[in-house]
Amino acid sequence: MKLWSILGNSQKLDGGAMFGNAPRALWSRWSPPDEGNRIALACRALLASPLNGKTVLFETGIGAFFDPKMRERYGVVEDRHVLLESLQAAGFHHEDVDVVVLSHLHFDHAGGLLAPWSEGRAPTLLFPNATYVVSGACWERANAPHARDRASFIPELQGLLENSGRLEIVDGDRCQALGDSVRFHYSDGHTPGLLLSEIVGPDRVQGEAHGGVVFCADLIPGRPWVHVPITMGYDRNAELLIDEKRTFLEDKLARNVHLFFTHDPECALAQVTRDDGGRFGTTHETPALHARALAA
């Protein structure tokens, strides 16, 4: 099995919102803002093939479904569907994907499911041969959002997914489409039922899988958020997320599971570290994956 990091459309969002209650004097050293106080963010997907005999895409990024006004409002940089170009550069097309795993249904993670915006055309789904995997709690949230995050969802998307006949809603640590090759972890601090997908590693120690890769989604958007107290203003429950993050990182450190970042503009993959003071960090940082073997 090989892994590719697949870049989608990039964004620029307010740095204060992305770093919650961390002061600008601190976060600006990690993510220098522009004149509008916005920081650069990637929307990076992970492609694995063959995984359980299938071509699997984790996330689709924000895509190009917004009209020009909304694209400007949400800081989407490119007006074309970059994810499709990145898939082609890796030797794939969206029709080749057998499974799309979505951590949640916020538009910056699921918008890439949709064809590019065209005036007068209704939204349409891409990936016509894929099973779409979503957690039950995320599905419920998208269909009945809170006023705080209603704007983060695409109103038409849930209907399109359901009508496709290829939607798999999961609540446990495995899904039918991927079997034992992918293990799911869950987090509720950012949004209910955030699905954190771990590609199970090749090594076994006392029955536990070691050496895998986990898609961190919005639990840990990039390297600065590996530091446990750092959260986003977009998180629904910062204290819960901090507790979840600590447990998550302790587990991945103990099992040598590497972290895959969706929003870090410079780093796709890194290994977890912890110093003598107990602070988590990263090492062996990799900017991109190109047909990389899982155990490499």
Please describe the structure with a list of short key phrases separated by commas or semicolons.
about 300 residues; alpha+beta; Metallo-beta-lactamase, Chain A; 7-stranded mixed beta sheet; 6-stranded mixed beta sheet; 8 helices; about 20% helix
3D structure, described in words:
This protein has 296 residues and is α+β, with helices and mostly antiparallel strands. The chain has one domain: Ribonuclease Z/Hydroxyacylglutathione hydrolase-like (Metallo-beta-lactamase, Chain A), CATH 3.60.15. The chain has 8 helices and 17 strands. The protein has helices at 15-18, 24-30, 68-73, 82-89, 107-110, 136-143, 157-164, 238-254, and strands at 2-7, 11-14, 38-41, 44-51, 54-58, 99-101, 131-135, 167-170, 182-187, 194-199, 203-205, 208-210, 213-215, 258-260, 269-274, 280-286, 292-293. The strands form 4 sheets. Strands 8-7-6-5-4-1-17 form a 7-stranded mixed β-sheet. It has a 6-stranded mixed β-sheet with strand order 9-10-13-14-15-16, with helices on one face.
